[in-house]
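Researcher: Next entry in the queue.
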Amino acid sequence: MGYNSVPVISTFAVTGPSDIFKGETVASLISMPINEDRLRKMQNLGLTEYQARIYLTLLDLGEAIASQLPSLSRVPRTRIYSTMNQLHEKGLVEILPEKPTKYVPVPIEAYIEKVAERKRLEASELETNVDDFSLEFAITPTVEVAKAGKFEAIYGRRNVRERLSRMYDGAKKEIISVGSWASPTRLVHARLPWIEEKSKEGLTLKYAFPVDSTTMEDVKILEEHIDVRTIDMHLPIYFVVKDSEELLLCHPIPNDEVVHRGDDIAIWTDDEGIVGAMRAIAESIWNQGFAPGSANITDTLVALTKRYLDLLGVNILPIFKALGREVGIALAASMKSKTKKELLGELSEFWKGHDLGRIEIISEDPMTIRLEDFIECEKLKHIEGAGCIFAENVVKAIVDEKLGVDCEIEEDECRGGLTGKCRLTVTLPS
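Model: Structure for this entry, 430 residues:
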């Protein structure tokens, strides 16, 4: 039968009541084993379970050596000495320097008084600092927690159109939309008066959708009032974002060629996170588009090629660098110059004769020339930096092939937003 279940008469004499042992009689305390209730009381006084077990065991033994404690206290042998030292520091155990060392329990009253005094000091300190704590931890709401928005499923073309009309009528700042190939015709037939009125009031209207010959006339009408961009994305849906506050995303069924008839399904929401994300997507798609009428087969092919290479993870700029060098080598093969002066003259004639811009000398030592309007960067707007990289490597290759030297080239001024053509400064070594 284990120690925990056998009453052992304690040598501890209770001299006075305390809150910890409130309600207990002297008779009930002098014959009590280690149990959950007594352990809890000890732990409420700040002792760990191991400390409480050893202290209660010492109360029943009066004094003990270390080897007697593990089996009675149920504390591992490896923890006896460290736990005993902790009890000594708390003033609950005396260590007798005998051989073997003996441990004697100290009556608990002094320890309880120390605990009580410490708590009184802590309480007094808290009361003294109430005002400081009140200021430091005052309720000052400054962060607004994002709230989940509302969602609405809408069925039927007429119902979708009515919800969209309410969005349009409530717009104060901006409407941005990504649509299908039928969007231009639908906008002209259903919303042109509204578009004309709101554009005069200064409302920002941005629309991006595929444009072809069948809708070009409607697009030209819209361009008088809104910012239209043509894109090469043929989406089965369209979506509209109003004032960064509301979103309507619609799947026209079977298509959106007819204004009123269709089994459309749409989702409307004012959820801040979703509306913000879809507005960013719409803005990005709009920015990647180009003005209808300015698009040509070259633009489309370049855009599609870049998108395909991006999907493959291919960096297209080194391709333009290599392409420029190959073009430069091919051009150099047809030139006869052997000196800087001869090459400069031949380059000038070639540039002028092929409408590549003009070349002028800006310094003779070292020889420095400027190439004006060499290549139309705007034609390669889908690939940022491609025009300049191509132009630089054409010139480098010509100089290297004809003179056997490596020239320095700088983009003297980025003129993509002005003339749309490159301006390069080329310095040949002395």
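Model: The first strand starts at residue 64 and ends at 65.
Researcher: Noted, moving on.
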